[in-house]
Amino acid sequence: MPNDFGGADVQYFERFGIAIVRQDSQRLAPTLMKAMEQKVVGSARAERTYRALGAASARADDGDHRPTGSHDPDEGYLHGYRDGVNQLIGRLLADKVVEGVQIAARFDEKSVAWGLEAIGIQRTGLSGAGIKVAVLDTGFDDKHPDFRGRTIVLKLFASRSSPDDVHGHGTHCIGTACGPMRPTTGPRYGVAYAAEIYAGKVLGDDGFGTDRSIIAGMDWALEQGCQIISMSLGAATSVGDQPNDDYEQIGQVCLDGGSLVVAAAGNESERPTRIAPVGSPANASTIMAVAAVGRNFRPASFSCGGLNPGQDVDIAAPGVEILSSLPGGLYDRWGGTSMATPHVAGVAALIAQSDPKFRGWALWARLLQLTRPLTARTRDVGRGLLQAPPK
After folding, report:
1. Residues with Cβ within 8 Å of residue 340, at least 6 apart in sequence
2. Which residues are known catalytic residues?
3. pLDDT tens digit sequence for 8-44
4. Judgement on whether residues 40 and 155 belong to the same structural domain of the protein
5. What range defines the domain where residue 355 resides?
6. Residue 177 — φ and ψ, nearest 5°?
7. What is the DSSP letter of 278?
8. Which of 155, 188, 237, 380 has the highest CB neighbour number within 10 Å of its CB?
9. pTM for the whole structure
10. What pLDDT digit, counting tens, does each position of 139-192 carry?
C-alpha cells in the first residue's frame, strides 16, 4: 500500500489485502490514480452503506407466491467453488420434498418456536458447545436474563454509535442463533444454546453501517477464531450487477481459514409481482446466501431470489414471525431474511461441534447435504430447507 494518501484516514486490512480510505474525492484522486498506474492498488470503488434486514412484523406472510414476469437465470451456470459444491450435493440428496401445508398444521410452539421445529431441532442432541459464533449486527444486550452464565465477547465497530444494542436487531439474531435451551419464559427459540457468542456491533444505533465497520468485524471474527460468521445485513442490488470483488475475496479468505460466512439474501422483493436479486454481500459466491420461508415453506413475500447468474440463493430457513430475544429482557416476533440467517448460523455451529472436519468449505457442503428439498424453485430457496444434524 502507498504510505500516504494525502493525509487521508486509511484503514488497511492486511489479512484481506483491502484498504479503506476516507478523504475528499478530489484530493484523493491523483494519489489513487498513481497507485493504480504503479499497480500498487488493483482496483478501487466507493464505500457502500448496508442495513439490518429484518424488523418486527416485516411484511410477514405465508402466501403462495408464484412469480410472474420475472427473469430466469441460466440454472446450469457454474460459478467457482460454490456451484461445484452445489452440484456435488445435488447428486447426494435423496430426501422427500417438504409438503408445507401438511407440516404447518403441526406447529403449536408449546416447547419450541415454529422455526426450530421446522429445522428439526428436537432430533439433535448437539448444543454448539466449544464453537465460536460471530454475529455482526447492531450489538447485543448481554444483560438479558436468558444469557446469564454464557461466554460472550462484545466489540464495537460502528462509528458514532453507542456500545449497546439500541436497535434490537442484533439481540434478536443472536437469540435465534445461540439462545438458551430453556428460556426464562416461553418456548425454546435458540439453536446453538451452548455456543460461545461473539457480538460485533458493525451497524449503528440506526441499523446502518459501512464497509469499514463490516470488514473490520469480519477481520476481528477471524482473529478470534470464530468458525461461523453471521451477517443479517445487506445492500440492494439490481439485475445485471456483479458481486463485490472485495467480499468475494474476504469470503474466500474466511473459508480457507476454516470460517463459514452466512448472510441474508435481502428483503427487497414484493412477491408475487416483483422478485429482487440477492443483495450484497450475500451475492458473493464465497458467502452463503440465506432466503426466508414462512410456515407453509413458501418463499416469504420479501425474500430475494437468484436472478443474476452465479449470484444464487444457497439455502432457505424460517424467516417469518420468528420469536426471539430483545433488549431489556423482552421477546418479540420479527420477520426478514435477517431472521432466517441466524437459524443457519446456529445449525452450522451444531455441525461444527459434531466433527472438527466440518470447517470452511466442508461445513458449507454439510449444511447443503442436510437440507430437505422444497416445492419452490431453486432460484428462491436454493438447495432447500435447513435441517439440524441428527445425532
Report:
1. 264, 290, 291, 292, 293, 303, 316, 317, 318, 319, 322
2. 137, 169, 338
3. 567 888 899 888 876 545 454 455 444 544 444 445 5
4. no
5. 49-381
6. -70, -45
7. P
8. 380
9. 0.86
10. 999 999 999 999 999 999 998 899 999 999 999 999 999 999 999 999 999 999
